[in-house]
Design goal:
six-stranded mixed β-sheet, globular, single chain
Length: 386
Amino acid sequence: MKTDLKNKQPLTRSRGTMPEPVNMPLDGPCVLGCGTEGNNAFCITSGKKAYVSPNNGDLTHYANYKAYLDSINELSALLKVQPETAAHDMHPDYVTTRYARQSAFEKLTAVQHHHAHIAACMTEHNLNETVIGIALDGMGLGDDGTLWGGEFLTANLADYKRACHFKQYHLPGGDQATIHPHRMALSCLLTEFDDDGKTAKRVLPAIDSETHRIIRHMIENKLRSPLTSSAGRLFDIVSAMLGLCGDEIAHPGEPAINLQNAAAEDTDFVYPFDISNGILDFGPMIRQIVSDIDNCTDKGRISSAFHNTVASAAAAVCDKIRSAEGIKKVVLSGGVFQNVRLLNLMTRMLDETGFETYSHFLLPPSDISIALGQAAVALARRAGKN
Protein backbone atom coordinates (compact mmCIF):
# COMPACT_ATOMS: atom_id res chain seq x y z
CA MET A 1 0.00 0.00 0.00
CA LYS A 2 1.34 3.38 -0.97
CA THR A 3 0.86 6.50 1.07
CA ASP A 4 -1.32 9.40 -0.04
CA LEU A 5 1.16 12.17 0.60
CA LYS A 6 -1.55 14.81 0.57
CA ASN A 7 -2.64 13.49 3.96
CA LYS A 8 -1.05 14.76 7.14
CA GLN A 9 2.09 13.00 8.27
CA PRO A 10 1.73 10.70 11.29
CA LEU A 11 2.26 12.34 14.65
CA THR A 12 4.22 11.15 17.67
CA ARG A 13 2.07 8.98 19.93
CA SER A 14 0.99 10.39 23.27
CA ARG A 15 2.21 9.17 26.62
CA GLY A 16 -0.26 7.33 28.79
CA THR A 17 -1.90 5.49 25.88
CA MET A 18 -1.60 1.84 24.89
CA PRO A 19 0.26 1.79 21.58
CA GLU A 20 -1.63 0.39 18.60
CA PRO A 21 0.17 -2.67 17.21
CA VAL A 22 2.03 -2.60 13.92
CA ASN A 23 1.80 -5.75 11.81
CA MET A 24 5.24 -7.25 11.19
CA PRO A 25 6.29 -8.99 7.93
CA LEU A 26 7.97 -11.71 10.03
CA ASP A 27 7.14 -13.75 13.12
CA GLY A 28 9.67 -14.73 15.74
CA PRO A 29 10.74 -14.52 19.36
CA CYS A 30 10.13 -11.39 21.41
CA VAL A 31 12.49 -8.54 20.45
CA LEU A 32 13.14 -5.22 22.12
CA GLY A 33 14.05 -2.48 19.67
CA CYS A 34 15.94 -0.10 21.97
CA GLY A 35 15.63 2.97 19.75
CA THR A 36 18.10 5.81 19.57
CA GLU A 37 19.44 8.10 22.30
CA GLY A 38 17.65 11.35 21.50
CA ASN A 39 14.01 11.56 20.45
CA ASN A 40 13.65 8.00 21.73
CA ALA A 41 10.89 5.48 21.38
CA PHE A 42 11.33 1.75 22.00
CA CYS A 43 9.52 -1.19 20.44
CA ILE A 44 8.54 -4.64 21.74
CA THR A 45 7.36 -7.45 19.46
CA SER A 46 4.90 -10.19 20.32
CA GLY A 47 4.39 -12.71 17.55
CA LYS A 48 3.70 -10.76 14.35
CA LYS A 49 2.76 -7.60 16.24
CA ALA A 50 5.05 -4.76 17.26
CA TYR A 51 4.22 -2.16 19.88
CA VAL A 52 6.02 1.19 19.64
CA SER A 53 6.17 3.34 22.77
CA PRO A 54 5.38 7.06 22.94
CA ASN A 55 8.27 9.53 22.66
CA ASN A 56 10.58 9.19 25.68
CA GLY A 57 12.59 12.30 24.81
CA ASP A 58 16.34 12.61 25.22
CA LEU A 59 17.66 9.68 27.27
CA THR A 60 20.79 11.55 28.34
CA HIS A 61 18.47 13.18 30.90
CA TYR A 62 18.22 10.83 33.88
CA ALA A 63 14.49 11.34 34.45
CA ASN A 64 13.76 10.35 30.83
CA TYR A 65 16.07 7.34 31.04
CA LYS A 66 14.42 6.17 34.27
CA ALA A 67 10.99 6.52 32.64
CA TYR A 68 12.31 4.59 29.61
CA LEU A 69 13.39 1.65 31.79
CA ASP A 70 10.11 1.68 33.72
CA SER A 71 8.11 1.81 30.49
CA ILE A 72 9.94 -1.20 29.03
CA ASN A 73 9.09 -3.23 32.13
CA GLU A 74 5.48 -2.02 32.17
CA LEU A 75 4.82 -2.78 28.49
CA SER A 76 6.53 -6.20 28.77
CA ALA A 77 4.29 -7.05 31.72
CA LEU A 78 1.18 -5.78 29.94
CA LEU A 79 1.96 -7.90 26.85
CA LYS A 80 3.04 -10.85 29.07
CA VAL A 81 6.33 -11.21 27.18
CA GLN A 82 10.01 -11.10 28.03
CA PRO A 83 12.31 -9.88 25.24
CA GLU A 84 14.94 -12.44 24.28
CA THR A 85 16.78 -10.20 21.80
CA ALA A 86 17.76 -6.55 22.14
CA ALA A 87 18.27 -4.71 18.84
CA HIS A 88 20.30 -1.53 19.29
CA ASP A 89 22.12 1.18 17.35
CA MET A 90 25.70 0.64 16.19
CA HIS A 91 26.91 3.68 18.15
CA PRO A 92 28.81 2.26 21.15
CA ASP A 93 28.28 5.30 23.38
CA TYR A 94 24.51 5.63 23.08
CA VAL A 95 22.67 5.15 26.36
CA THR A 96 20.47 2.57 24.62
CA THR A 97 23.48 0.61 23.37
CA ARG A 98 25.00 0.51 26.84
CA TYR A 99 21.67 -0.56 28.31
CA ALA A 100 21.37 -3.43 25.82
CA ARG A 101 24.94 -4.62 26.43
CA GLN A 102 24.69 -4.44 30.20
CA SER A 103 21.35 -6.26 30.46
CA ALA A 104 20.72 -10.00 30.47
CA PHE A 105 19.37 -10.49 26.95
CA GLU A 106 20.02 -13.83 25.25
CA LYS A 107 21.04 -12.14 22.00
CA LEU A 108 22.13 -8.68 20.86
CA THR A 109 21.73 -7.33 17.34
CA ALA A 110 23.50 -4.12 16.29
CA VAL A 111 21.61 -2.29 13.54
CA GLN A 112 22.97 0.58 11.46
CA HIS A 113 20.91 3.74 12.01
CA HIS A 114 19.84 4.34 8.40
CA HIS A 115 19.14 0.69 7.70
CA ALA A 116 16.78 0.83 10.69
CA HIS A 117 15.04 3.87 9.18
CA ILE A 118 14.43 2.06 5.89
CA ALA A 119 13.40 -1.19 7.61
CA ALA A 120 10.83 0.72 9.69
CA CYS A 121 9.12 2.18 6.63
CA MET A 122 9.29 -1.20 4.88
CA THR A 123 7.58 -2.77 7.89
CA GLU A 124 4.74 -0.24 7.78
CA HIS A 125 4.10 -1.26 4.16
CA ASN A 126 4.66 -5.00 4.77
CA LEU A 127 7.60 -5.05 2.35
CA ASN A 128 10.08 -7.92 2.61
CA GLU A 129 12.20 -7.60 -0.51
CA THR A 130 15.11 -5.53 -1.80
CA VAL A 131 14.33 -1.84 -2.23
CA ILE A 132 16.15 1.43 -2.82
CA GLY A 133 16.17 3.15 0.55
CA ILE A 134 16.67 6.92 0.74
CA ALA A 135 17.51 7.85 4.34
CA LEU A 136 17.91 11.58 4.90
CA ASP A 137 18.39 12.83 8.45
CA GLY A 138 20.70 14.58 10.88
CA MET A 139 23.36 12.00 11.59
CA GLY A 140 23.94 8.38 12.50
CA LEU A 141 27.11 6.34 12.81
CA GLY A 142 27.99 4.55 9.59
CA ASP A 143 29.78 1.25 9.28
CA ASP A 144 32.88 3.07 8.04
CA GLY A 145 33.13 5.12 11.23
CA THR A 146 31.97 8.40 9.66
CA LEU A 147 28.68 10.17 10.33
CA TRP A 148 26.08 9.29 7.71
CA GLY A 149 22.89 11.17 6.93
CA GLY A 150 22.39 11.50 3.16
CA GLU A 151 22.15 7.83 2.17
CA PHE A 152 20.98 5.73 -0.75
CA LEU A 153 20.89 2.08 0.24
CA THR A 154 19.90 -1.08 -1.53
CA ALA A 155 18.30 -2.88 1.36
CA ASN A 156 16.09 -5.71 2.50
CA LEU A 157 15.04 -6.27 6.08
CA ALA A 158 18.12 -8.32 6.96
CA ASP A 159 20.91 -6.43 5.23
CA TYR A 160 21.87 -3.41 3.14
CA LYS A 161 24.51 -1.99 0.84
CA ARG A 162 25.47 1.67 0.61
CA ALA A 163 24.93 2.53 -3.05
CA CYS A 164 25.48 6.31 -2.95
CA HIS A 165 25.71 9.15 -0.44
CA PHE A 166 25.85 12.92 -0.21
CA LYS A 167 29.30 14.46 -0.44
CA GLN A 168 30.93 14.68 2.97
CA TYR A 169 31.95 17.87 4.75
CA HIS A 170 33.77 18.34 8.03
CA LEU A 171 31.60 18.95 11.10
CA PRO A 172 33.67 21.45 13.15
CA GLY A 173 33.17 20.89 16.85
CA GLY A 174 31.04 17.78 16.30
CA ASP A 175 27.56 18.21 17.77
CA GLN A 176 28.24 21.91 18.36
CA ALA A 177 28.00 22.44 14.61
CA THR A 178 24.37 21.25 14.73
CA ILE A 179 23.62 24.01 17.26
CA HIS A 180 25.63 26.64 15.36
CA PRO A 181 24.69 26.16 11.67
CA HIS A 182 27.05 28.89 10.46
CA ARG A 183 29.96 26.60 11.38
CA MET A 184 28.70 23.99 8.94
CA ALA A 185 28.20 26.64 6.26
CA LEU A 186 31.76 27.84 6.81
CA SER A 187 33.07 24.28 6.50
CA CYS A 188 31.24 23.83 3.20
CA LEU A 189 32.39 27.14 1.71
CA LEU A 190 36.00 26.53 2.70
CA THR A 191 35.77 23.19 0.89
CA GLU A 192 34.09 24.49 -2.26
CA PHE A 193 36.12 27.71 -2.72
CA ASP A 194 39.90 27.68 -2.79
CA ASP A 195 40.27 31.41 -2.19
CA ASP A 196 41.77 31.66 1.30
CA GLY A 197 38.32 31.98 2.89
CA LYS A 198 37.34 35.15 1.04
CA THR A 199 34.02 33.76 -0.21
CA ALA A 200 33.13 32.42 3.21
CA LYS A 201 33.79 35.81 4.82
CA ARG A 202 31.65 37.55 2.23
CA VAL A 203 28.71 35.13 2.42
CA LEU A 204 28.84 34.67 6.20
CA PRO A 205 29.57 38.16 7.58
CA ALA A 206 28.13 37.23 10.99
CA ILE A 207 31.16 35.03 11.70
CA ASP A 208 33.85 37.18 13.29
CA SER A 209 37.45 36.84 12.14
CA GLU A 210 38.64 34.98 15.26
CA THR A 211 35.88 32.37 15.03
CA HIS A 212 36.62 32.04 11.32
CA ARG A 213 40.31 31.44 12.07
CA ILE A 214 39.64 28.87 14.80
CA ILE A 215 37.13 26.85 12.78
CA ARG A 216 39.34 26.93 9.71
CA HIS A 217 42.25 25.67 11.81
CA MET A 218 40.06 22.84 13.19
CA ILE A 219 39.01 21.75 9.71
CA GLU A 220 42.46 21.96 8.14
CA ASN A 221 44.02 20.00 10.98
CA LYS A 222 41.08 17.59 11.41
CA LEU A 223 40.63 18.58 15.05
CA ARG A 224 37.21 17.51 16.39
CA SER A 225 35.87 17.83 12.85
CA PRO A 226 34.51 14.44 11.76
CA LEU A 227 33.24 13.93 8.24
CA THR A 228 29.51 13.77 7.65
CA SER A 229 27.26 13.14 4.66
CA SER A 230 24.27 14.52 6.58
CA ALA A 231 21.34 15.82 4.55
CA GLY A 232 20.18 17.75 7.60
CA ARG A 233 23.48 19.62 7.69
CA LEU A 234 23.12 20.48 3.98
CA PHE A 235 19.85 22.23 4.83
CA ASP A 236 21.68 24.04 7.66
CA ILE A 237 24.37 25.16 5.23
CA VAL A 238 21.98 26.75 2.74
CA SER A 239 19.78 28.26 5.46
CA ALA A 240 22.83 29.91 7.05
CA MET A 241 24.12 31.14 3.70
CA LEU A 242 20.78 32.83 3.06
CA GLY A 243 20.71 34.40 6.51
CA LEU A 244 17.55 32.49 7.46
CA CYS A 245 18.82 31.33 10.84
CA GLY A 246 20.84 32.83 13.65
CA ASP A 247 24.26 31.75 14.84
CA GLU A 248 22.63 29.53 17.50
CA ILE A 249 19.41 27.65 16.91
CA ALA A 250 16.53 27.66 19.41
CA HIS A 251 15.24 24.17 18.55
CA PRO A 252 16.27 21.19 16.37
CA GLY A 253 15.45 21.58 12.70
CA GLU A 254 15.01 25.36 12.90
CA PRO A 255 17.26 26.19 9.89
CA ALA A 256 15.52 23.61 7.69
CA ILE A 257 12.05 24.78 8.77
CA ASN A 258 12.96 28.39 7.95
CA LEU A 259 14.36 27.32 4.59
CA GLN A 260 11.18 25.42 3.74
CA ASN A 261 8.98 28.32 4.82
CA ALA A 262 10.98 30.76 2.71
CA ALA A 263 10.59 28.78 -0.51
CA ALA A 264 8.70 30.47 -3.31
CA GLU A 265 6.01 28.65 -5.27
CA ASP A 266 6.76 29.97 -8.75
CA THR A 267 9.92 28.24 -9.91
CA ASP A 268 10.88 24.80 -11.16
CA PHE A 269 14.53 25.76 -11.59
CA VAL A 270 17.11 23.08 -10.67
CA TYR A 271 20.72 23.84 -9.77
CA PRO A 272 23.56 21.70 -11.16
CA PHE A 273 24.88 18.69 -9.24
CA ASP A 274 27.18 15.77 -9.96
CA ILE A 275 26.93 12.01 -9.39
CA SER A 276 30.20 10.12 -9.61
CA ASN A 277 31.74 7.06 -7.92
CA GLY A 278 28.85 6.65 -5.53
CA ILE A 279 28.89 10.28 -4.36
CA LEU A 280 26.11 12.82 -4.90
CA ASP A 281 27.98 16.12 -5.02
CA PHE A 282 26.02 19.31 -4.40
CA GLY A 283 29.16 21.43 -4.71
CA PRO A 284 28.05 22.82 -8.11
CA MET A 285 24.76 23.88 -6.51
CA ILE A 286 26.54 25.59 -3.60
CA ARG A 287 28.73 27.56 -5.99
CA GLN A 288 25.71 28.67 -8.03
CA ILE A 289 23.85 29.69 -4.87
CA VAL A 290 26.80 31.89 -3.90
CA SER A 291 26.59 33.50 -7.34
CA ASP A 292 22.87 34.06 -6.85
CA ILE A 293 23.48 35.61 -3.43
CA ASP A 294 26.07 37.96 -4.94
CA ASN A 295 23.52 38.94 -7.61
CA CYS A 296 20.84 39.59 -4.96
CA THR A 297 18.55 36.82 -6.25
CA ASP A 298 15.38 36.46 -4.20
CA LYS A 299 15.86 34.13 -1.23
CA GLY A 300 12.52 32.45 -1.89
CA ARG A 301 13.61 31.52 -5.40
CA ILE A 302 16.93 30.17 -4.13
CA SER A 303 15.21 28.10 -1.45
CA SER A 304 12.69 26.72 -3.93
CA ALA A 305 15.45 25.81 -6.38
CA PHE A 306 17.38 24.13 -3.56
CA HIS A 307 14.43 21.86 -2.72
CA ASN A 308 13.92 21.10 -6.43
CA THR A 309 17.59 20.20 -6.75
CA VAL A 310 17.70 17.79 -3.82
CA ALA A 311 14.59 16.00 -5.12
CA SER A 312 15.83 15.94 -8.71
CA ALA A 313 19.25 14.65 -7.67
CA ALA A 314 17.70 11.88 -5.57
CA ALA A 315 15.58 10.79 -8.52
CA ALA A 316 18.69 10.75 -10.72
CA VAL A 317 20.56 8.55 -8.23
CA CYS A 318 17.61 6.15 -8.05
CA ASP A 319 17.55 5.96 -11.85
CA LYS A 320 21.22 4.93 -11.86
CA ILE A 321 20.58 2.25 -9.23
CA ARG A 322 17.56 0.94 -11.16
CA SER A 323 19.64 0.73 -14.34
CA ALA A 324 22.32 -1.26 -12.52
CA GLU A 325 20.15 -3.48 -10.33
CA GLY A 326 16.60 -3.39 -11.64
CA ILE A 327 15.02 -2.22 -8.37
CA LYS A 328 11.81 -0.22 -8.81
CA LYS A 329 10.56 0.30 -5.25
CA VAL A 330 11.88 3.32 -3.33
CA VAL A 331 11.42 3.73 0.43
CA LEU A 332 11.81 7.17 2.06
CA SER A 333 12.69 7.67 5.73
CA GLY A 334 14.58 9.96 8.08
CA GLY A 335 13.82 13.22 9.84
CA VAL A 336 14.45 15.38 6.76
CA PHE A 337 11.25 13.94 5.30
CA GLN A 338 9.27 15.86 7.89
CA ASN A 339 9.78 18.57 5.26
CA VAL A 340 6.51 18.06 3.36
CA ARG A 341 7.67 20.16 0.43
CA LEU A 342 10.68 17.92 -0.17
CA LEU A 343 8.67 14.75 0.46
CA ASN A 344 6.02 15.67 -2.09
CA LEU A 345 8.56 16.89 -4.66
CA MET A 346 10.67 13.76 -4.40
CA THR A 347 7.67 11.44 -4.49
CA ARG A 348 6.24 13.16 -7.56
CA MET A 349 9.55 13.04 -9.43
CA LEU A 350 10.08 9.37 -8.58
CA ASP A 351 6.52 8.41 -9.49
CA GLU A 352 6.78 10.27 -12.81
CA THR A 353 9.87 8.23 -13.72
CA GLY A 354 8.23 4.87 -13.03
CA PHE A 355 9.19 4.14 -9.43
CA GLU A 356 6.87 2.88 -6.70
CA THR A 357 7.47 5.20 -3.76
CA TYR A 358 6.73 4.46 -0.11
CA SER A 359 6.85 6.75 2.92
CA HIS A 360 5.74 6.53 6.55
CA PHE A 361 2.03 6.58 7.37
CA LEU A 362 1.92 4.95 10.83
CA LEU A 363 4.96 6.53 12.51
CA PRO A 364 6.86 9.77 11.94
CA PRO A 365 9.90 9.49 9.64
CA SER A 366 12.10 10.80 12.48
CA ASP A 367 14.05 8.70 14.99
CA ILE A 368 10.73 7.72 16.61
CA SER A 369 10.56 5.02 13.91
CA ILE A 370 14.06 3.65 14.52
CA ALA A 371 13.08 1.05 17.15
CA LEU A 372 10.52 -0.56 14.83
CA GLY A 373 13.19 -0.90 12.16
CA GLN A 374 15.69 -2.34 14.64
CA ALA A 375 13.19 -5.01 15.69
CA ALA A 376 12.34 -5.89 12.08
CA VAL A 377 16.03 -6.27 11.20
CA ALA A 378 16.65 -8.51 14.22
CA LEU A 379 13.71 -10.78 13.28
CA ALA A 380 14.81 -10.94 9.64
CA ARG A 381 18.37 -11.86 10.53
CA ARG A 382 17.17 -14.57 12.90
CA ALA A 383 14.80 -15.96 10.27
CA GLY A 384 17.66 -16.08 7.79
CA LYS A 385 19.72 -18.27 10.12
CA ASN A 386 16.91 -20.79 10.79
